[in-house]
Amino acid sequence: MSSNDRQRVERVPGSRRARLTPAPGTTAEPVPADETADAAPSADAASGDSGPNDERLRRDVPPHY
């Protein structure tokens, strides 16, 4: 692997921070699967366990909300 195939650290002019160059073979665009938040089932639905107070606990919120 040559040094051209790796990420490099670049200085950002006028800033104390630095940034990395993109890794080879990657893009900055998100993958459509990353955008869906409801793709994974909830923990309660997956386990099948539910108690008598679960619905009430989901509805209740602290007074500052």
Give structural notes.
By secondary structure, the protein is of the alpha+beta class. 23% of the residues lie in helices and 9% in strands. The protein has 3 helices and 2 strands; from the N terminus they run E-E-H-H-H. The chain has helices at 32-35, 43-47, 54-59, and strands at 9-11, 18-20. It has a two-stranded antiparallel sheet. A hairpin with a 6-residue loop joins strand 1 and strand 2. The protein is elongated, with a radius of gyration of 23 Å. The mean pLDDT is 76.
Note the main sheet. Answer: 2 strands, antiparallel
Assembly state? single chain
Uncertain runs: none
Counting H and I runs of at least 4 residues, what is the number of helices? 3
Helix content: 10-25%
Set out the fold topology.
Elements: E1 9-11, E2 18-20, H1 32-35, H2 43-47, H3 54-59
Antiparallel strand pairs: 1-2
Question: Which characteristics define this entry?
Answer:
65 residues; 2 strands; elongated; alpha+beta
Would you kindly provide a brief summary of this structure?
The chain has helices spanning 32-35, 43-47, 54-59, and strands at 9-11, 18-20.
